[in-house]
Write a structure and sequence with these properties.
single chain; 525 residues; 5-stranded mixed β-sheet; alpha/beta; Quinone Oxidoreductase, Chain A, domain 1
């Protein structure tokens, strides 16, 4: 069960929250009453995501002598024998001021869980955290597992489920009585546990200085923020800086916040409150989704957590999670997807990948120049072949594509939401089920054209038009030499020149080939 409960993403997020809400290059964590070395290893393994920090782990409990001494020494984890159930609890000097402690299925063993949690508070620094997992569902399954493991079953309290297990309401009442705030709560139908992050209620209320970062044109907030930071560096811990972004949806506040935390890593002064809504009803300019006078918002901010992100009516925090090897090729039905090579330069790794268009569609507003188009056909161009085979690197493509997941595909044909047949171009990612593009680069498909034909037109004709008309300043009656006239761009150039009544000379392969036959049949004159 340790493997099931602690390798999951829920625990990873809880661990990340503890790291994020601590200060300094060294985080001080403790595993309390661990039932096995495997469980301790899972706790410690989560720190591998945070390579910039060092972690000092300690093992605490009444049965630490049962843990393998050699393994503890290899992991550099000291142990301290400390019983939380004694009549008089005496904490040790070495087991104080932890940033976070971790408990898994411990409370269900305690007759007085409130007293137990109060004693755990003595291990924590002010505002320290507890990551706690308890069985809250599928209690019959938990009983079977206990029986199979040969564990003794002892009922502790008749008000609990089977005298042992808590409901979520009972747990949260227990947390409140013990003097903790619930900062994180997550469960999964496939698990029998619920994971909480609890915060020791600080002695002093937080004094908040707000700095709004919504001005992304003049950046008038930069100097006031610099002064605020300097003023707060030597201030007590309860004086914090709150960075807010509630009106502009793309301020870059997450990256900016990470930079500040790295620069001022020795302090934990920064809190961020921002709106990352994607749905249209939450992205109207006049809509203010975060009302700081709202009692619910005030209650949330009272928790004094580092990250407070609002998205489409819900509060939480945005996290990056590793996709495990077995999940990389997981199949999923979805409306929005694009084609990409999963391994650079390896065309055998070409696969469909879910597209972020599912979120961008929600943000499209009426009257916007951005259009969603369902792709029926997409053309392969020479650039796509070169990219897929790794013969040119992605950064060789002009433009700002550093954050693009995929660069394959430039031209397409399909239908708009209204059903209109269109063809168009995008900077990248046209080999897809849907594209979002500027309506300036969409054209109606003539009735006598098929959509398959239309998909081959935009890039060739735009290239030729740009070269001849925009840059070459082609005039009526000019004489022009076109090399490789049988190619796509060559045929487009010939057609444009003939429409200007120009005299056209072209080069092609002398021997009769399919290409020369196409050229002869297309331009008989």
């Amino acid at each position: 069960m340790a493997d099931v409960v602690n390798r999951d993403r829920i625990f990873t997020v809880a661990h990340d929250i503890c790291v994020e809400n601590s200060a300094g290059y060294r985080r001080k964590f403790a595993a309390v009453e661990v039932s096995s070395m495997e469980l301790l290893k899972h706790y410690v393994a989560a720190q591998e995501r945070h390579i910039l920090f060092d972690f000092d782990w300690t093992c605490i409990g009444p049965n630490v002598e049962d843990l393998d001494e050699e393994t503890l020494n290899q992991m550099r984890v000291p142990k301290f024998n400390l019983s939380f159930d004694d009549q008089e609890f005496k904490n040790l000097r070495e087991t104080r001021n932890f940033d976070a402690i971790f408990l898994t299925k411990v409370l269900s063993l305690k007759k007085d869980p409130v007293q137990y949690l109060r004693r755990c508070k003595e291990l924590l620094r002010d505002s320290g955290l507890i990551v706690l997992s308890e069985i809250t569902q599928h209690h019959e399954l938990a009983l079977i597992i206990h029986a199979l493991q040969g564990l003794d079953f002892e009922a502790c309290d008749e008000t609990r489920v089977y005298g042992k297990y808590f409901s979520t309401n009972q747990l949260e009442d227990t947390f409140e009585q013990a003097g903790y705030w619930v900062c994180f709560k997550q469960t999964d139908p496939a698990l029998i546990t619920t994971t909480y992050v609890l915060k020791k209620i600080p002695k002093l209320a937080r004094e908040i200085t707000k700095v709004n970062l919504d001005d992304v044109s003049k950046f008038d907030w930069v100097e006031p923020l610099q002064k605020t930071i300097l003023d707060h560096l030597n201030e007590p811990e309860h004086k914090v800086i709150q960075l807010t972004s509630t009106r502009v949806k793309s301020t870059g506040i997450l990256g900016f916040d990470r930079s500040l935390n790295r620069e001022y890593v020795k302090t934990s002064k920064f809190r961020i409150v921002c709106d990352f809504s994607t749905k249209k009803e939450y992205r109207e300019e006049e809509t203010r989704n975060i009302d700081f006078d709202d009692p619910e918002v005030q209650k949330l901010l009272q928790l004094d957590m580092h990250s407070n992100h609002f998205r489409n009516g819900e509060w939480g925090s945005i996290r990056d999670l590793e996709i495990k090897e077995g999940e990389r090729m997981a199949l999923k039905e979805c409306e929005h997807a694009f084609v990409n090579t999963l391994a650079y330069g390896d065309v055998s790794s070409v696969a469909w990948v879910e597209s972020p268009n599912q979120y961008l569609v929600e943000a499209l507003s009426e009257g916007s120049k951005q259009e969603l188009c369902s792709v029926y056909y997409a053309a392969l161009n020479f650039r796509d072949i070169m990219l897929a085979y790794g013969q040119i690197p992605p950064d060789a493509i002009p433009g700002q594509f550093a954050d693009n997941d995929c660069l394959l595909g430039m031209e397409f044909s399909g239908r708009l939401k209204s059903g209109k047949r269109v063809m168009g171009i995008v900077s990248a990612q046209a080999l897809a089920t849907t594209v979002i593009t500027d309506s300036t680069f969409l054209w109606d498909v003539p009735k006598h054209w098929s959509l398959a034909d239309a998909a081959t037109v935009p890039v060739a004709y735009l290239t030729a038009y740009y070269a001849l008309i925009i840059r070459g300043n082609l005039q009526q009656g000019d004489k022009i030499l076109i090399h490789s006239g049988s190619g796509g761009v060559g045929q487009a150039a010939i057609a444009i020149c003939l429409s200007y009544d120009c005299e056209v000379f072209t080069t092609t392969i002398i021997l009769p080939t399919p290409e020369t036959l196409v050229l002869n049949n297309t331009f008989r004159e």
